[in-house]
Structure formats: C-alpha cells, structure tokens
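worker-3 :: picked DUF2059 domain-containing protein
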Amino acid sequence: MIKRVFCCGIFLLSLYSTSAISKNTSSTDPLLEQVYSLTGLEQQFYYLSKTFTDSGIEMGRSNLPPEQLTQRKVNQIMSGLNHQYAVDSLKTKAMTILKQELGQKLLENVLPLMQAPAWRNAIKLENKAYDLARINELEDYIGGKLQENPPRTMRVDLAYELAEKTGAVDLTINLITSAALNNARLLVGDENHELPANIEANIRATMADMRQEYESLVIRQYLYTYRYLSDRQLEEYVSCYDNPSIQALNSAMTIALMEAFK
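worker-3 :: tokens ->
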C-alpha cells in the first residue's frame, strides 16, 4: 500500500532539518473498522506521530538562535506538534475520508481481498518495519547490508513495480513536504502560523529536487520490509494492485493520508 513509504520520508525529513496518544477513536461502522485495521495505518500513525514530533523539536534546536529557544518556546512547539500529530485525530480523519471515497459497496468488495494471505502477510511485515523498537535494524539494513549483499534483479524490479503501482514516491514527497511546512509554521510563522512566501517556496523546491533520493530510499525500504516474502509471495502482493477494488482503496488512502497530515 502507498502508506508503506513513510519510513523513508521520515529519514529525509530528519536530514532536511532547515505523544500522549489515545486509542479511544472508535467507529460505528464495523466494516470500515475491519478495512482500516487491515491497512496497517494504525502502527504507522504511532510511528509518524512520534517521529514528526521529534523532528519538529530538532528543527527548532537547529534553526532557532539559543536566546529564542526558551523553555516556553519549546513547550509551545511541543503542544502544537502533539496536537497536529495526535493519533486519534489522524485516525478519525483517515477513516472519514476512506468512508467517503469508498462507500459501502467498495468496502464490501475490498475486505475479502485484504483478508487473503498475500495481503495479510505483507501487512504483518509492514507493521514490524514501523515498530519504533526496530528502527536501528532498519537503518543497519538500508545503510549496510544492502550494499554487502545486493538483492537479485527480480526483487529490485518488483520493488520498482510496487512503487509505480501505488504512486509511493509522489505521496512520500507530498507528505514530507507537508510535515516540513507544518513544523516551519510553528517555528517561524506569524501569530496565525503563516509562513513568508519565500520560505515556503524554498521548502517545496528543496523537496522536489530530492525526488531521486526519495525514490532510492523507497525502493530500499521495500527491499527491507518484504525481505522475508518469497519471490512468489511478493509477486502475488504486487499483483493485488491490478485489482480495481484495491486500486480504489489505494487512491482513497492517498487522499486520506494527505488530509490527515495536512
């Protein structure tokens, strides 16, 4: 699913550098809850909430003069980031969009596809990849093991095919750009958190110029995330995105993710 690219984007947000989380969100639609649970978004929201908040604080320490980075300013930044990236709020936004974009019929059609082994196995691995306790393992694999033991061409080709079918690179760029802008508004925006036009333009241009790096990181994370799937299992998962119902889900998730992190 498109969502799986977030780890790569987070690394770049940290490189760019210029919560009390509630589980009380509930839905009155059991079908929607089932579909949501099989997207793997819940684990990623926890990961992103923590990482985007930490990145925002780091941006403050790196970019604000010491005399401006008072404890009051730190608390103000923390409060804004915790509100912006609260998991219960992210989930509510995402589920609202999924329901609007898919509707009852498509939810009914897509659920059996998501309950199939090909999908469940992939989501299980994605949830592991987004486990904060495993972040060092991910960094070691991407930074070292891939160079020491390059994957076979077939695996790389499948990773590129998956990225193309899901639109993962474009989504990653858009999400990380949004996060960078949100953090910058808290740091240097006016009382309405509006950024000077030149700062926003510079952020957008910088992110756009890094497209090739984003694509490379997306592919490397795919190779890490799905390394325990056999060739046949990975092919089956990639082929899931040929199904019109899965394509509709993927499109709805793109909209949901952009809305959640806007």
